[in-house]
Specification:
This protein is an alpha+beta fold. The protein has 2 domains: about 230 residues, Sandwich (Immunoglobulin-like), CATH 2.60.40; about 90 residues, Cupredoxins -  blue copper proteins (Immunoglobulin-like). The strands form 3 sheets. The protein has a 5-stranded mixed beta sheet with strand order 3-2-1-5-8. Strands 4-10-9-6-7 form a 5-stranded mixed beta sheet. A two-stranded antiparallel ribbon has the order 11-12. Strand 11 and strand 12 form a beta hairpin. The longest helix has about 35 residues. The N terminus is likely disordered.
Amino acid sequence: MDAGHVMRRFAPAATAWLALAAGVAAAGDDTTRTSSIFAPISTPADASYTAAMLVLLITAGIAIAVNGLLAYAIVAFREQPDDDGSEPAQVYGSEQIELAWTVIPILVVVVLCLVTARTVYDVQGAQKPPGAIDVTVVGHQWWWEIRYPALGIVTANELHVPVSDPAARSPTFMELESADVAHSFWLPRLAGKTDLIPNRRNHMWIEPREPGLYLGQCAEYCGTQHAHMLLRVYVHPRAEFDRWVAAQREAAVADPAVAAGRHVFETTACINCHTVRGTVATGRFGPDLTHMMSRDTLVAGAARMDPDALHAWIADPDHVKPGALMPAMNLDPTQLDQLVSYLVTLR
């Protein structure tokens, strides 16, 4: 296997990790923060962090002990100028040493097994409290469909949840599904990774303590645009979250000034893939566009949501996101301008 083949094979995965660590510059300055598992702000992430720190401390202790003994042996038993070259005295069967290197590793493994089992139980066995938010996340190539079944909301790529108050907990419990290939849902500061497997439903939950924006990423290579399958989680104070819910439940804006653009939308293949509530568009293959412009990013984080980016995306999807499954609509310039004018009213 030549070097070029290796680079072509692994470059997309490497790009994904770099995108997660550095954020997506095109999506704005607020995404340049690092998403680190060592800065948890959610209950499941706390559990994983505690277990990880214990493992790191134990392994650091082992590394110090082993390297210390190695350094001592190198210094204490190095060749001396007056060595006669004869073989040193051989020592066999030290019961103390053999007990040490047998018992100590067994104890370490037992401790780590118990801690891991307790962490898994605490995270996966958590009971849903009465105030929990239910969300269904569906992974697609290459974007996230996000549904709130009890609230009647469908959005894409941006998960909105409330801060969980210890006095009145409101964690978010998620069912994870895949519409095509294997994906992996990862929110480093909120929870561990959970795979999305076709024909299987997995579960995870988050319980953020601090409002803010937190970045996530598909952590399972899922095809050409795996690196551009980003996720943004907005954690709101409760009153702000309730206002977001109320806005998302509204029907799409019907602005007579953009009727020509709406006509273009409703008479092309757009309606086969996308939904806009209150119109004839009821497609489910692509993202729900009812409140598209309320989102901060376009194309699962590949671009900032603005009219220019939207224009470029519709005109040539493969240029913006090579390999994307959205086809070019081949609209003439007037139709394209009209369509974009209509879409930017969907807030």
